[in-house]
């Protein structure tokens, strides 16, 4: 199974900060990666699909990049509603796998 | 608008079988896509359980494969999960979701999730 390693596992930041979360795959997955945001008590919400395609309705301050084994999710200017958990998931092969998550907290 | 909704018992006894159903609206599952299940133990991360195609083709998480069975009912536009011999470690919020795949160079799916349902394993 392809392992996804996210870093950091937690992050404290302030409103207006630029934040980057990374996801590294144990083997190449082309661009078959999605990023999700999850708030407490809610289902994950897709932000980015195919590594860099912004989902309709998602603010443009979110962006994704990468291919192969190294991927990043960047939030250009943190807003109060962005404090949540973030997960990557690979769709290159079965079994599907998730990163362990990054909890983004207010500093 | 595609919507998914999980249903099933919120409490299951140890050693018994957990059974959940995901009703899909706004999209005929017979049209395509794999449809899957993901779970999240309290305070922990997401774990993929398995996915099923409308024809019945299935893929399972190797760590759960011996206990998991997925099925699909296209006439009711729903798919189901059975997890046998449950223990407290199976206590989690269970989500159903539309899986993603590439077709003709385009990535499709990986988008819609149900709201989730908490299943507690306890006597």
Question: By helix and strand content of chain B, what is the structural category?
Answer: mainly beta
**Residues in helix, % of chain B:** under 10%
What is the radius of gyration of chain B computed over CA atoms, rounded to a whole number of angstroms? 14 Å
Helix content of chain A: under 10%
The low-pLDDT segments of chain B are none
Short account of what is shown:
Chain A is mainly β and 107 residues long.
Question: What are the SSEs and their pairings?
Answer:
The complex is a heterodimer of chains A (107) and B (123).
Chain A: E1 4-7, E2 10-13, E3 19-25, E4 33-38, E5 45-49, E6 53-54, E7 62-67, E8 70-75, E9 85-90, E10 97-98, E11 102-106
Parallel strand pairs in A: 2-11
Antiparallel strand pairs in A: 1-3, 3-8, 4-5, 4-9, 5-6, 7-8, 9-10, 9-11
Chain B: E1 3-7, E2 11-12, E3 18-25, E4 34-40, E5 47-53, E6 58-60, E7 68-73, E8 78-83, E9 92-98, E10 100-103, E11 106-109, E12 117-121
Parallel strand pairs in B: 2-12
Antiparallel strand pairs in B: 1-3, 3-8, 4-5, 4-9, 5-6, 7-8, 9-12, 10-11
Comma- or semicolon-separated keywords:
heterodimer; A: 107 residues; mainly beta; 7-stranded mixed beta sheet; 4-stranded antiparallel beta sheet; 11 strands; globular; B: 123 residues; 6-stranded mixed beta sheet; 12 strands
């Amino acid at each position: 199974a392809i392992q996804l390693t996210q870093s950091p596992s937690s992050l404290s930041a302030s409103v207006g900060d630029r934040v980057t979360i990374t996801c590294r795959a144990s083997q190449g997955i082309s661009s078959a990666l999605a990023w999700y945001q999850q708030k407490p008590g809610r289902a994950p919400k897709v932000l980015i699909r195919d590594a860099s395609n912004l989902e309709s309705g998602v603010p443009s301050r979110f962006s994704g990049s990468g291919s192969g084994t190294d991927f990043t999710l960047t939030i250009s200017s943190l807003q109060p509603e962005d404090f949540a958990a973030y997960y990557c998931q690979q769709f290159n092969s079965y079994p599907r796998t998730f990163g362990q998550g990054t909890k983004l907290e207010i500093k | 608008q595609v919507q998914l909704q999980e249903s099933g018992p919120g409490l299951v006894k140890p050693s018994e079988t957990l059974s959940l159903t995901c009703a899909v609206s706004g999209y005929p599952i017979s049209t395509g896509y794999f449809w899957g299940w993901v779970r999240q133990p309290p305070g922990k991360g997401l774990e993929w359980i398995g996915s099923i195609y409308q024809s019945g083709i299935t893929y399972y998480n190797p760590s759960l494969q011996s206990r998991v069975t997925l099925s699909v009912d296209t006439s009711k536009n729903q798919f189901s999960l059975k997890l046998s011999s449950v223990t407290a470690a199976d206590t989690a919020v269970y989500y159903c979701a539309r899986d993603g795949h590439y077709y003709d160079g385009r990535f499709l799916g990986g988008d819609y999730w149900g709201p989730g349902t908490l299943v507690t394993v306890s006597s």
